[in-house]
Automatic annotation (TrEMBL):
<keyword id="KW-0659">Purine metabolism</keyword>
<feature type="binding site">
    <location>
        <position position="243"/>
    </location>
    <ligand>
        <name>O2</name>
    </ligand>
</feature>
<dbReference type="GO" id="GO:0019628">
    <property type="term" value="P:urate catabolic process"/>
</dbReference>
<feature type="binding site">
    <location>
        <position position="217"/>
    </location>
    <ligand>
        <name>5-hydroxyisourate</name>
    </ligand>
</feature>
<dbReference type="GO" id="GO:0004846">
    <property type="term" value="F:urate oxidase activity"/>
</dbReference>
<dbReference type="GO" id="GO:0006145">
    <property type="term" value="P:purine nucleobase catabolic process"/>
</dbReference>
<feature type="binding site">
    <location>
        <position position="243"/>
    </location>
    <ligand>
        <name>urate</name>
    </ligand>
</feature>
<dbReference type="InterPro" id="IPR002042">
    <property type="entry name" value="Uricase"/>
</dbReference>
<feature type="binding site">
    <location>
        <position position="150"/>
    </location>
    <ligand>
        <name>urate</name>
    </ligand>
</feature>
<dbReference type="GO" id="GO:0005777">
    <property type="term" value="C:peroxisome"/>
</dbReference>
<feature type="binding site">
    <location>
        <position position="48"/>
    </location>
    <ligand>
        <name>5-hydroxyisourate</name>
    </ligand>
</feature>
<dbReference type="Pfam" id="PF01014">
    <property type="entry name" value="Uricase"/>
</dbReference>
<feature type="binding site">
    <location>
        <position position="243"/>
    </location>
    <ligand>
        <name>5-hydroxyisourate</name>
    </ligand>
</feature>
<feature type="binding site">
    <location>
        <position position="49"/>
    </location>
    <ligand>
        <name>urate</name>
    </ligand>
</feature>
<feature type="binding site">
    <location>
        <position position="167"/>
    </location>
    <ligand>
        <name>5-hydroxyisourate</name>
    </ligand>
</feature>
<feature type="binding site">
    <location>
        <position position="48"/>
    </location>
    <ligand>
        <name>urate</name>
    </ligand>
</feature>
<feature type="binding site">
    <location>
        <position position="217"/>
    </location>
    <ligand>
        <name>urate</name>
    </ligand>
</feature>
Amino acid sequence: YGKNTIKFLRLHKEGKKHFVKEVEVCTHLRLTSAQEYLDGNNSLVIPTDTIKNIVLVLAKKNGIPTLEQFAIDICKHFMTTFCQVAYVKTYVQEVPWQRLHENGVPHIHSFICVPDGIRFCEAEQCRNGPLIVFAGIKDLKLMKTTQSGFEGFYKNEHTTLPERHDRILCGELFCKWSYGECKDFDFDCIWYIKIRECILEAFSGPPDCGEYSLSYQKTVNSIQMLVLSKVSQVQVIEVVLNNTFYNVVDMKNLGLTNDKEVLVPVEAPYGSCACTLARKKFLEA
């Protein structure tokens, strides 16, 4: 049991310069006894309002240096404070505020919400067990207008989809990875400089020519393989790509030739590709 959607803004000031983190937190506990379920005995139950207040107090006292560190702080607090807690899991996601720039100059206290994906993390721990950290990005919308196709697929009497060697590849990406046992990682650096760049590079290819995608599935795998090859801290990575398809508008009746210049999105149904990869040593462990 626990408390969902604890939303708040943490404002940090350094002189005249302000920093913000707006987050949504979900924290759930499993107790050493199930007596509250079996007998209606609530003597060990930590009220969800108390859970909410603890999260807010930790934000006030510790700040939010990174999403991952804040999730770790929450887990550690419940494990060290309440002996009746057998398991704790915390999910934290961030509202994508970015500092506003005017003529290239960063503003000291103004921000803009940029919808380029929502960063999130999870931390979980069993009593006497390791603290495990996950991180990820969701609702990241990506598109490339060429260098994508889908050919040679299985066909039978129900197949109506034509083969395509030049199409728009567009989708909404969900990516979640595991760091394994908690260590002193620079989580922000790993995300912004390494994993984010791997995702964008594998999806798009070189900036001057791109890279051909044989399928949504191959693109998903390319993202995972590049992350695992370049980011040693990642042990397991899950990628889900929800596809957005576009159909070329037939303008013959309007006396126009439409050479893939005007297209409309197919709202539903849409495809989805998902895959999880792990390092061999992680699976063996």
